Amino acid sequence: MTKPKLRARLAALSFSEKVKILEKLRERSLAIAAAGLRSTRRGSGKVIEGKVVQKDAE
Amino acid sequence: MKATLEAINQMQADGVIGKYAIGGAVGATFYLEPAATVDLDVFVTLPVTRGGLLSLQGIYDYLKTRGGKVEDEYIVLGGWPVQFLPSGNDLEQEAIAESVAIALEGVNTWVMKPEHLVAIALRTGRSKDHIRILQFTEQGAVDRKKLTDVLNRHGLTSKWEQFERKYLEGHL
Fold first, then answer.
1. Are B37 and A16 an interchain contact pair (Cβ–Cβ within 8 Å)?
2. Are A46 and A55 in contact (CB under 8 A)?
3. Please, which of B44, B57, B92, B119 could form a disulfide with A50 given CB 3.0 to 4.6 Å?
4. How close are the terminal C-alpha atoms of chain B, in Å?
5. Distance from B108 to chain A by nearest Cα, in Å?
6. What pLDDT, on a 0 to 100 scale, did the predictor assign at position A30?
């Protein structure tokens, strides 16, 4: 299967199925971070607790 | 994520937040293939404080008394770090107001329309935002006419033209 076809197939999944994949991707990401290979944090957080100063949507 | 959305809906029912909509990578996943993300971006309308400032303090106070855990700019709900982003401009307010009602595992929630996700990504303007815009355009997941209207309405036409020149010329 070509990459565009695979992407189209993934995009056509139901949101529930996609969220399951998202959760697996997130677990993998956290596992990699826990192994010290990279950080889980984004470097540009703009919200100080209780005070919003700038948006920074993922 | 079901528990996360249930908690957010409860916050809405309790009046801590107003209308909300999912944006960011999770919002985009509704229309595209899933993309790795560590958090859930929730754009919210908030009650205005006496001083006229938008504040997340009400959310923090509410969630702390219910066992919510604050981690940097996130609040962990149902295992997911959630970033609450008060709508700070007309584009985000429109994106929330016109968001699409969906159900995830029986839980009602709202996701931004693709045109608003693209416009917000364009305005935010980081590399990963540009990648996401390209995904929307390459996969035909955004209505170009509606997108043009949103961009015009929110003063993003010039920025979009720059983006087109840099990334899309010769590809569409």
1. no
2. yes
3. B57
4. 36
5. 12
6. 83
A54: confidence class by pLDDT, cuts 50, 70, 90 = very low
Could you give the ipTM of this predicted complex?
Answer: 0.83
Beta strand segments in A1-58, E: 47-48, 51-52
Each residue's pLDDT tens digit, B22-47: 999 999 999 999 988 889 999 999 87
Q: How many CB pairs under 8 A join A and B?
A: 101
**Contact status of A56 with chain B (Cβ, < 8 Å):** yes
CATH numbers and ranges of domains, chain B: 2-112 (3.30.460), 116-168 (no CATH)
Q: Is A2 on the interface with B (CB under 8 A)?
A: no
Domain count, chain A: 1
CA distance B69 to A57: 20
Decide if A32 touches B, using CB distance below 8 A. no
Q: For B89-98, how does the pLDDT look when each residue is reduced to its tens digit (9 = 90+)?
A: 999 999 999 9
Of A25, A52, A56, nearest to B54 by CB-CB distance is: A52
Kindly give, in sequence order, each residue whose CB lies less than 8 Å from that of residue B40, ignoring residues fewer than 6 positions away. B1, B4, B22, B24, B26, B80, B81, B82, B83
Question: Which residue range forms the structural domain that includes residue A16?
Answer: 3-54
Chain A residue numbers touching B85 (CB-CB < 8 A): 47, 52, 55-57
Identify the closest residue of chain B to A55 by CA–CA distance.
B85
Integer Cα distance of B161 and B25 in angstroms: 23
Q: pTM of the entire structure?
A: 0.85
